[in-house]
Amino acid sequence: MAFDFQGIATQFVTHYYTTFDTDRKALAGLYRENSMLTFESAQALGTANIAEKLTNLPFQKVKHHFDTADAQPTATGGIVILVTGQLLVDEEANPLKFSQAFQLVQDPQGQWFVFNDIFKLVFG
User: In the 3-class helix/strand/coil scheme, how is the chain assigned residue by residue?
Assistant: First the structure.
């Protein structure tokens, strides 16, 4: 491959969850108007709608811990990332398992952004 897709993916995932846990509003800069989020089967299209969805989630505090971040390059020069991990919300003592998939692509200026984002809690 002509680029370090795994390195980019690892840096992205670390940045994404650190930002999510400290200032969800700042995640808006990672999306564009053609980006789509599916969060627990609810879809949001575009930067403003995605930011609104993420900032209005029904908890105040969250701490993510990702266990895996597997990445592959796409045929069009993007990166697909599958993350598995656990998160703690508010004062809960028991972590919730989650899975999240991202497709990163580059804008005309060469900046990586989230084109697709799918999040699911994993029960059982």
Answer: CCCCHHHHHHHHHHHHHHHHHHCHHHHHHHEEEEEEEEECCEEEECHHHHHHHHHCCCCCCEEEEEEEEEEEECCCCCEEEEEEEEEEECCCCCCEEEEEEEEEEECCCCCEEEEEEEEEEECC
Q: Which two tokens stand for residue 81?
A: 């990332």
Tokens of 24: 């969800």
Which pTM value belongs to this model?
0.94
22-35 pLDDT, tens digit per residue, is 999 999 999 999 99
Q: Give just the sign of the alpha carbon dihedral 42, 46, 47, 48.
A: negative
Residue given tokens 């993420």 in the structure block: 54
pLDDT digits over 50-89, tens only?
999 999 998 889 999 999 999 999 999 999 999 999 999 9
Rounded-to-integer distance, Cα 19 and Cα 26, Å: 7
